[in-house]
Amino acid sequence: MNYLILVHKGLKTIKPIVRLRWGVMTALNVEKFRELTPSEFFYRNREIAGFSNPVRALYQTVRELVENALDATDAHGILPNIRIVIRRESGTSREGIYSIMVEDNGIGIPPNHVPQAFGQLLYSSKYVLRQTRGMFGLGAKMAVLYGQITTGKAVEVVTSPINSVRTYYFKLRIDIKHNKPIVLKKASYPKINGWHGTIVKLYIEGDWSRARSKIYEYLRRTAIIAPYAEILFEDPDGNVIFFERRTSKMPPPPKEVKPHPHGVDIEMVKMMIHSSSAGTLKEFLVKEFQCIGEVTALRLIEQAGLNPDINPKELSIDEIEKLVRVIRTSKDIRPPKANHLSFLGEEIIKTGLKSILNPEFVEAVTRKPSVYEGHSFIVEVGLAYGGAIKPSDKPILLRYANKIPLLYDEGSDVSRKIVDSIDWSYYNVTFPAPLVILVHICSTKIPYKGVGKESIADVPEIEREIELAIRDVARKLKTYIAKKRKEREEAEKAVAIAKYIPDVANALAKIFEDIPREKIEKELLKLLNKKLKTFKITSLDSIVISVE
What pLDDT score does 403 carry? Predict the structure, then answer.
């Protein structure tokens, strides 16, 4: 191989020369390496967070801001009052620019956290073991980032913490290169009306005409899953829609809990050891994990062949690996607690389905907590049938994860797979039929198929719970349909008999001249009603039937 000798300021550099096929000599290039901050990464790959085009971005922005607003209210025991306003910005140099404003009456944000909460990706209050709608601390910041990329405008935030005597205003943008907030303006004012909560307003490039149906459907499904919320929406066309609060009953607020031993790995245990103040390995297991007491801790340490009195910070990587292997596979550890989950409950689900869909039959079930990979989860299913629901060729599916409506990628979702696999004729349902199935999964670790959080993967434990819950409510629907069918058949027979009563009464009146026809007619009707179990005929004039 030939070499190229470069001389610069007395220093020699020797680089190999390669001869390319077409005879050109060049110095061998060296790969350049650099790191990307989270904001740079998502600036380049914003489509994986749901901001792939103006249609999806407008929907995703509304969704992310509404989710934050609901988390700031119902997770803290506050009945939500949410206001959403989308407006076309006519004063801009181009079309398709919209302002989106979302206001809530939640707990507010401490002012020292506001810049990072909206201007630093992967900075969040949600990185704890407690159920929230968001998981990655990403959504609202991605909306801010997308708006900054497409319009150049900053986000504006007004917030007043629930126990604060002041209201705070921020105008900021994201330093994409360094993933840091840039505060353009900051102010505070005395609180004068007792209001607490947060108002977020940002500007993005969007397409309302194509996003309109998705946004309306998202809000409609949010009203179903959260009938305890009051939601006011003003769209760019000047239309106002109001979802009234239908109940004051709320889901139990989730509590923060410690990790379960079956859900940890080597790196997680290393981080836990680093942040723990425990002086011994036994104390570490008892103090940092749920479902481990002193007796269980000593048994696990013995199985791993370790010293219970050793300082956990002195453990080698091999010893940590042994410990993790033992605690992940131990059968002596109880299943994880579920008090960090906020399930809806059957009453709230039925209230939501009734208020929006107006069905003739509604049923719901909340399954007991289950576990996958050390993470507890709860499956809830609601069923609505008949009434104002339009018939369709297959069940209409409403999917939710941690109270979030999932509108995209339904075909790849585990719930769709299960609903389509059920033989509905067994449950007396013949399609097309007016049937809606609601599936809600709540967990601190929803197995989404992507960062866009629109489709849930086929986890066997979750799949089993969904199917059991659907079949549970379907059996109750089967009973209802069978009862209605029996009532209809009885009614048809009753009408068929009742229409001959006047003729029979006339004939009998001629035989028994001393008995009035009206009395005979009345007695015959009384005799017929005694034979009817579910219906009573109240009048022969128009064959009016009433259900007792």
Answer: 92
- Mean pLDDT across the stretch 217-231? 97
421 Ramachandran zone, left/alpha/beta (phi>0; psi -120 to 50): alpha
Helices (H) and strands (E) in the chain, counts: 14, 19
Separation of alpha carbons 466 and 316, rounded Å: 42
| pLDDT at residue 545 tops 60 | no
* Element housing 547 (H / E): strand 544-547
Residue 533 DSSP SS3: coil
The pTM for the full model equals: 0.79
Q: Give the whole-angstrom CA distance, residue 329 versus residue 2.
A: 59
Per-residue confidence (pLDDT) for residue 127, from 0 to 100: 43
Helices marked H in 378-511 — which ranges? 414-421, 460-498, 501-511
Cα 498 from chain centroid?
A: 54
CATH fit for domain 346-479, picks 3.30.230.10, 3.30.420.270, 3.90.1150.10, 3.10.350.10 = 3.30.230.10
- Topology given in CATH for the domain delimited by 261-329: Helicase, Ruva Protein; domain 3 (1.10.8)
In the beta sheet, which residues pair with residue 98? Answer: 88, 204
CA angle 94, 100, 105 (to 5 degrees): 165
Look at 497 and 6; give whichever has higher pLDDT.
Answer: 497
Average confidence (pLDDT) over 322-340: 84
Q: Which fold has domain 41-243?
A: Heat Shock Protein 90 (3.30.565)
